[in-house]
Design a protein that fits this description.
The protein is an alpha/beta fold. The protein has a domain at 34-243: Ribonuclease Z/Hydroxyacylglutathione hydrolase-like (Metallo-beta-lactamase, Chain A, 4-Layer Sandwich), CATH 3.60.15. It has eleven helices and 14 strands. It has a seven-stranded mixed beta sheet. α8 (208-221) runs antiparallel to α9. The two termini are 31 Å apart. The structure holds zinc ion. Zinc ion (ZN) binds at residues 95, 97, 100, 170, 189.
């Protein structure tokens, strides 16, 4: 399978090691550029390949949110330095997926203190199977050393940066990150903006209802000026996230009604519950796949 730039951009790294020859993957990483976008003084997003990164920096040190893939660590470090930031002191993972934690080992070795939801450490510390793909356990240096069940607050660079643990959504170890003064929120993969339909990783304990709950949690913190960093895709507004939340919630309602009415998955898919929404049907998660995940997540057999 050819690994296209779009796939990398969409973070569909599932294809990366499973299908692409190693040299091809290396070449693709060699061509990846890390592009910064300033969101507030001392807060920037970095776009490359894999999950979107956020950087918080200033006189008290640099916090990185997620770190994409190991072959990109050096480029990410250079991009951080180009912002005028010191080397990464703290790293927070929004969840365990390898397109968000692939740089952990490198950054852990470089001295970063890694933090995440309790279940990120649990999943990274053991082999994970998803479909026919197996992720080996991560080395100790790549694991979060500070973990939390509810969240953690970092008091630095003139504001509180809060990691808020969520109920199962994209996985069972998701966090959103809130810059309370800069008015920025990183949603991790509980939110994809424009690039694909929602992805609920059921084999990692995800739950479609948690996607709605995650959006509600963020929306309660947001106003019309808030800059929302999705796990993948461009920076979003509160209105974008509201539209996404509405779509997911209404699709849940339709699929749930179908299950209650005794309809099969095929009958529910045939009713086209996604019609009428402004969604990207050509992303990593296709309409039928999304409906199937919603169905299974709601207990459909
Ligand atoms: Zn993910």
């Amino acid at each position: 399978m050819i690994l296209s730039r779009f796939m990398l951009a969409a973070g569909t790294a599932i294809l990366l090691t499973a299908c692409a020859p190693a040299t091809q993957a290396q070449n693709d990483f060699a061509n990846v550029e890390i592009k910064p976008e300033q969101l507030a003084p001392g807060v920037a997003a970095l776009f490359g390949a894999g999950g979107n990164i956020a950087v918080s920096y200033g006189e008290d040190g640099t916090v990185l949110i997620d770190d994409q893939f190991a072959p990109l660590t050096e480029k990410i470090q250079k991009s951080v330095a180009a912002l005028g930031a010191s080397p990464v002191k703290f790293l927070i993972n929004t969840h365990w997926h390898f397109d968000h934690t692939g740089g952990n080992e490198n950054l852990g070795k470089a001295g970063a203190v890694i933090m995440a939801h309790d279940n990120v450490r649990v999943r990274m510390a053991s082999e994970q199977k998803r479909g026919d793909r197996t992720n080996p356990a991560s080395p100790k240096v790549a694991l979060p050393v500070v973990t939390y069940a509810e969240g953690v607050k970092l008091h630095l660079n003139g504001e509180e940066v809060r990691a808020i643990a969520l109920a199962p959504a994209h996985t069972d170890g998701d966090s959103i990150i809130h810059w309370t003064k800069s008015n920025v929120i990183h949603m991790g993969d509980t939110y994809f903006n424009k690039v694909t339909l929602p992805f609920v990783d059921l084999s990692s304990g995800g739950n479609i209802r948690g996607i709605v709950a995650a959006a509600d949690r963020a929306l309660a913190l947001a106003n019309d000026q808030t800059k929302i960093i999705p796990g993948h895709g461009p920076i979003a507004t509160k209105a974008d996230l509201q539209a996404y939340r509405k779509m997911v919630s209404e699709v849940i309602g339709k699929v749930e009604a179908g299950i209650k009415a005794g309809k099969t998955l095929d009958q529910i898919k045939a009713a086209k519950p996604l019609d009428g929404y402004d969604i990207n049907v050509n992303g990593f998660i296709k309409p039928d796949g999304f409906i199937e995940t919603v169905y299974k997540s709601l207990g459909g057999k």
